[in-house]
Amino acid sequence: MSFKTRPSLVLVNVIFLFSLLASSCSQVVFKSNQEIPVFISPAAGHDEYFKTERSQEFYFFGTIPSTFDIEVDAIARSEGFTSVANMTVTSYQTWSDWLKSIFSLGFYTPKTIRIEGFGLGRSDD
Q1: Please, are residues 85 and 118 in contact by the beta-carbon 8 Å criterion?
Q2: Stated pTM of the model
């Protein structure tokens, strides 16, 4: 292998590594176990805004765990609501999450999950 082909080989490896780090194989599944009613659209009486963020850790380029389930109604219930409407769920990487992924070469990949909505009536428990 000549010296002239090595820089292009290094460039190809760097591009491959960056694309591997930029994409992960993890899947976050948002579901309801029907503890409380959850509506994606607005509903009457749901006027108390809430927002919560959680962090989830993935390992080995996001392959472990391959699927992570989040029960949105259990989270809303833990916030004290008996029903939730106009709920939005966002999964993203913060700058610190991204830097941790880069510095660990993809072996550790945290993601932040934000759940927002409007709740109805705080429960007594």
Answers
A1: yes
A2: 0.66
Residue 74 has a pLDDT of: 84
Q: What percent of the chain has pLDDT over 70?
A: 71
Token duo for residue 16: 């491959």
Specify the pLDDT at position 31: 74
Positive or negative, the Cα torsion across 85, 120, 29, 101? positive
**3-state secondary structure string, 57-121?**
EEECCCCECCEEEEEHHHHHHHCCEEEEEEEEEEEECCHHHHHHHHHCCCCEEEEEEEEEEEEEE
Residue burial 42-59, b: 16+ Cβ < 10 Å; e: rest: ebeebeeebeeeeebebe
Per-residue pLDDT at 123: 52
- Beta partners for residue 120, in sequence order: 83
Given this model, what pLDDT does residue 104 score?
84
Q: How many Cα atoms within 13 Å fall on the side-chain side of residue 119?
A: 22
Record: fold of 24-122: Translation Initiation Factor IF3 (3.30.110)
